[in-house]
Design brief:
With about 280 residues, the chain is of the alpha/beta class. It folds into two domains: about 140 residues, 3-Layer(aba) Sandwich (Rossmann fold), CATH 3.40.50; about 90 residues, Rossmann fold. Helices cover about 45% and strands about 20% of the residues. α9 packs across α10.
Length: about 280
C-alpha cells in the first residue's frame, strides 16, 4: 500500500458526483487515505445550481458553503472508520485540465469521478467530462455511474490481455480486494476477429498464480461477437460483478475500450464502477 495514500474527488454537486464521493470516502477508510474534495468553479454548472444568481455574485460563497457541508458529513462518517483526513479545494479553470493538473501536483493515487451517462434524449455534460478525464489522466481513476450506490464489492472483474503488466496490476487489485474480501475474476476476452489460444490462456494463468497471494481468484476465458467493451459489460452483469477493472498500459486493448465510440459506450452504458489502472 502506498504511504500517504491520496484520493482526489472532483465534485459538481450532481447526484453522480455525490455517489463518487461516497465511494471515495469508503475506499479512503480502508487505505487510511487523505481525501480531497475538489471543485472547479464553472459558470455554466453554477447557473444550474443557482439560476437566480445570473451574474455569479454569490457563486463562491454558495459553493464554499456546499463544500463545507460535504466535508463535515465525510469527516463525521468516515474519520472514525479510518479516513486520515478530508480537505476541500476550490479553484477556477477548465474542469478536466484543472483536475488532472491538480492530481499531478499532489501526486494523487486515485481519482474518483462520477459519470451521469446518457439518457434517452441527450448527452449529459459530466459524462463527457469523465470520459475525457479517463483518457487524459496519468492517475488511477475510478468512474462511478449515477445509479451505482456504494456497497461492499463482492466481485471484481479484471480484464486481462496477456501482457506482462497484468502481473503488477493484479497485485494492486488483490490489495483492494482484501479490504472487502472480494472475489476476483481475471477475464480474458476476444472479439469475433481474434481466435483465442487455450494454451496461451493456460500459460497466462500459470504465470500469474505465483504472484497472486489470494485465494478468491478465478481465471476466465471468454469471447464475444459484439464490441469488446459491451462484451465486458455483459460479462460483468452475468457474473454479478460489482466493479470492472482494466489496465491502460495495454495500448491496443485499452484503445478498443476507450477510443472513438467505444469510450462513449462504456461511459454511458456501464452500470457498475469502472477502475482504470494507470500506474503501479
Amino acid at each position: 500500500m502506498a504511504s500517504n495514500f491520496t484520493i482526489l474527488c472532483p465534485i459538481d454537486f450532481s447526484e453522480c458526483a455525490l455517489n463518487a464521493l461516497e465511494y471515495a470516502a469508503k475506499i479512503g477508510e480502508k487505505y487510511k487515505a487523505k481525501l480531497i474534495i475538489f471543485h472547479v468553479l464553472n459558470k455554466q454548472d453554477y447557473q444550474q445550481l443557482a439560476p437566480l444568481d445570473l451574474d455569479g455574485t454569490f457563486q463562491k460563497e454558495f459553493v464554499e458553503q456546499k463544500l463545507k457541508s460535504l466535508q463535515d458529513a465525510v469527516l463525521k462518517e468516515s474519520l472514525p472508520k479510518g479516513l486520515q483526513s478530508c480537505e476541500v479545494v476550490l479553484t477556477e479553470g477548465a474542469i478536466v485540465q484543472t483536475t488532472i493538473a491538480y492530481s499531478q501536483k499532489i501526486n494523487a493515487n486515485l481519482i474518483v469521478v462520477g459519470t451521469e451517462g446518457m439518457n434517452e434524449f441527450r448527452e449529459q455534460v459530466f459524462g463527457s467530462r469523465s470520459s475525457k478525464m479517463v483518457m487524459q489522466t496519468d492517475r488511477d481513476i475510478l468512474v462511478v455511474p449515477r445509479k451505482a450506490f456504494f456497497k461492499r464489492p463482492r466481485k471484481l472483474v479484471f480484464a486481462s490481455d496477456y501482457v506482462e503488466e497484468d502481473k503488477a496490476a493484479i497485485q494492486k487489485v488483490v490489495e483492494f480486494a482484501k479490504f472487502f474480501d472480494s472475489e476476483i475474476d481475471i477475464v480474458h476476452v476476444s472479439s469475433r476477429t481474434r481466435v483465442i489460444d487455450k494454451a496461451l490462456h493456460k500459460t497466462m494463468v500459470e504465470e500469474i498464480k505465483p504472484v497472486v497471494s489470494y485465494d478468491l481468484v478465478n481465471y476466465v476465458l471468454k469471447s464475444f461477437r459484439d464490441d469488446l467493451a459491451l462484451g465486458l459489460e455483459n460479462y460483468l452483469q452475468l457474473a454479478k460483478g460489482d466493479m470492472l477493472v482494466t489496465l491502460s498500459k495495454k495500448k491496443d486493448f485499452f484503445d478498443q475500450l476507450f477510443s472513438k465510440n467505444l469510450s462513449r459506450k462504456m461511459s454511458y452504458f456501464i452500470t457498475k464502477p469502472l477502475w482504470v489502472i494507470k500506474s503501479f
